[in-house]
Automatic annotation (TrEMBL):
<feature type="domain" description="Pyruvate kinase barrel">
    <location>
        <begin position="6"/>
        <end position="327"/>
    </location>
</feature>
<protein>
    <recommendedName>
        <fullName>Pyruvate kinase</fullName>
        <ecNumber>2.7.1.40</ecNumber>
    </recommendedName>
</protein>
<keyword id="KW-0479">Metal-binding</keyword>
<dbReference type="InterPro" id="IPR015793">
    <property type="entry name" value="Pyrv_Knase_brl"/>
</dbReference>
<dbReference type="InterPro" id="IPR040442">
    <property type="entry name" value="Pyrv_kinase-like_dom_sf"/>
</dbReference>
<keyword id="KW-0067">ATP-binding</keyword>
<comment type="similarity">
    <text>Belongs to the pyruvate kinase family.</text>
</comment>
<comment type="pathway">
    <text>Carbohydrate degradation; glycolysis; pyruvate from D-glyceraldehyde 3-phosphate: step 5/5.</text>
</comment>
<feature type="domain" description="Pyruvate kinase C-terminal">
    <location>
        <begin position="356"/>
        <end position="469"/>
    </location>
</feature>
<dbReference type="InterPro" id="IPR015806">
    <property type="entry name" value="Pyrv_Knase_insert_dom_sf"/>
</dbReference>
<dbReference type="GO" id="GO:0016301">
    <property type="term" value="F:kinase activity"/>
</dbReference>
<keyword id="KW-0460">Magnesium</keyword>
<keyword id="KW-0547">Nucleotide-binding</keyword>
<dbReference type="GO" id="GO:0000287">
    <property type="term" value="F:magnesium ion binding"/>
</dbReference>
<dbReference type="InterPro" id="IPR015795">
    <property type="entry name" value="Pyrv_Knase_C"/>
</dbReference>
<dbReference type="GO" id="GO:0004743">
    <property type="term" value="F:pyruvate kinase activity"/>
</dbReference>
<dbReference type="InterPro" id="IPR011037">
    <property type="entry name" value="Pyrv_Knase-like_insert_dom_sf"/>
</dbReference>
Length: 472
């Protein structure tokens, strides 16, 4: 049985280092709640195998796993280089060319954006590989953009390209994204993340596409562009969740701005009760080392103190040497930090029965020292509201809806449990809660639990009662 020791959820990117039954099993047991499938890499055959593997292992462990499809978005990347890498020397001149013009000439780098020469400006800065390498545009000759190397180093194939001084005419949703989305829907993914969101219209475009495909998938907006910061309020009004993608955000903007931006973004999400993921370089050194730096441990702890719903591993779990240890470390940090936090109790977002009842959770929890808070939910909304109160007790969400069961595993402090049938009466709700909690060793005789639900049960959003119950 998966423990309820920590409330902050752990998102782990699945890649070559973690794509095996045994490692995935150990990562879930260590605390992985969400598996991120990065559609910037891999074939459909690879992703289909990964989805099947994740679902199979989670079913064997009788625990949910949320599948997060991360669309590539309008990401500009270096093409494939001879021998997979090229050395860029400081002061040297190199040519950036579109893929169709690349012929493996020395000091030439292919770029998968065909309009770079049209939109480039002399003197503009170009950053490669998350800003580790820096170029300055010195001239433009036809389709060739000539650059001088300001900060050199080893450039590998498929590394990212950022142009912070240029406003590019990139679509929010590429043709590849649309094809990937259709594939993801066919595979039963639970949540989709849109990369490089710049404005609310980007999310509206994706949601319209989902509606046209008959899907109601929740949409996460990845915040990694200056335009997204400028339009944050409008983006929050449209998204179902948000990711603070600190890698590209720190490249596109000054790195020193990222910490306070992270805090403000998380605060705004908490105010609106929108789940938020903090991502990128959380335990970067654990790609090669079995333990993180003290600074990385503090970084993770601060994100948790800020109120993030989830923390995310990227290369640490996708290509690193210690994917299981990285998940374990996040879980250990969360377990240590969470009991010391006095979370802000934000005012309710609505004046209705469900919001009023959720506001009462913390008062009851603080007096009775509850073992857990139980919600019965068909849409997931009641569990989301309970989580938003940041109670000291974990939230156990019973639902008969398989999609909701999977999606709720991203939400802070929520442990979803799938019901095999719809529970109809009040008495059945109480009996089911006690029976299933005892079966899963989540309670013992004498424990106090708080049950939150709605009668009649079939009405979505109809939460209308709280019941304090003692396990007999």
């Amino acid at each position: 049985m998966i423990s309820l020791n920590h409330r902050t959820k752990i998102v782990a990117t699945i890649g070559p280092a973690s794509n095996s039954p045994e490692i995935i099993k150990q990562m879930i047991e260590a605390g992985m709640s969400v598996a991120r499938l990065n559609f910037s890499h891999g074939t459909y055959e690879d992703h289909a195998k990964t989805v099947h593997l994740l679902r199979s292992v989670a079913e064997d462990l009788d625990t949910p796993i949320t599948l997060l499809q991360d669309l590539q978005g309008p990401k500009i990347r270096v093409g494939y280089l001879p021998n997979n890498a090229i050395a860029l020397e400081k002061g040297a001149t190199i040519d950036l060319v579109p893929l169709f013009a690349f012929n493996s000439q020395p000091d030439t780098v292919p770029i998968d954006y065909p309009y770079l020469a049209e939109e480039a400006e002399i003197g503009a800065k170009i950053l490669l590989d998350d800003g580790l390498l820096e170029l300055t545009i010195v001239s433009i000759e036809g389709s060739i953009v000539k650059c001088q190397v300001v900060e050199g180093g080893q450039l590998k194939s498929r590394k990212g390209v950022n142009l912070p001084n240029l406003t590019l005419k990139l679509p929010s949703l590429t043709e590849k994204d649309e094809q990937d989305l259709e594939f993801g829907i066919s595979q039963g993914i639970d949540i989709v993340a849109l990369s490089f969101v710049r404005r609310a219209e980007d999310l509206k475009t994706l949601k319209q596409l989902l509606t046209a495909k008959g899907s109601d998938l929740p949409v996460i907006a990845k915040i990694e562009k200056p335009q997204a910061i400028a339009n944050l309020k409008e983006i929050l009004d449209q998204c179902d969740g948000l990711m603070v993608a600190r890698g590209d955000l720190g490249v596109e903007m000054r790195p020193e701005r990222v910490p306070m931006l992270q805090k403000e973004i998380i605060r705004q999400c908490n105010l609106r009760n929108i789940p938020v993921i903090t991502a990128t370089q959380m335990l970067e050194s654990m790609i090669n080392n079995p333990y993180p730096t003290r600074a990385e441990a503090s970084d993770v702890a601060n994100a948790i103190i800020d109120g993030t719903d989830a923390v995310m591993l990227s290369g640490e779990s996708a290509v690193g040497n210690y994917p299981i240890k990285a998940v374990q470390m996040l879980a250990r940090i969360a377990t240590d930090v969470e009991p010391e936090i006095n979370f802000v109790n934000n005012p309710p977002a609505g004046n209705d029965e469900t919001h009023a009842l959720s506001e009462a959770l913390n008062a009851i929890d603080s007096i009775l020292n509850l073992r857990c808070i139980v919600t019965f939910t068909s849409s997931g909304y009641t569990a989301l509201l309970a989580s938003g109160e940041r109670p000291q007790s974990p939230v156990v969400a019973f639902t008969p809806n398989l999609e909701v069961y999977h999606r709720l595993n991203l939400i802070w402090g929520v442990k979803p449990i799938l019901l095999d049938r719809e529970v109809i009466t009040f008495e059945e709700l109480v009996t089911q809660a006690e029976t299933l909690l005892l079966q899963r060793n989540l309670v013992v005789t004498g424990d106090h639990i708080l049950i939150m639900g709605g009668i009649p049960t079939q009405i979505a959003g109809g939460t209308n009662f709280l019941k304090i119950h003692t396990i007999k």
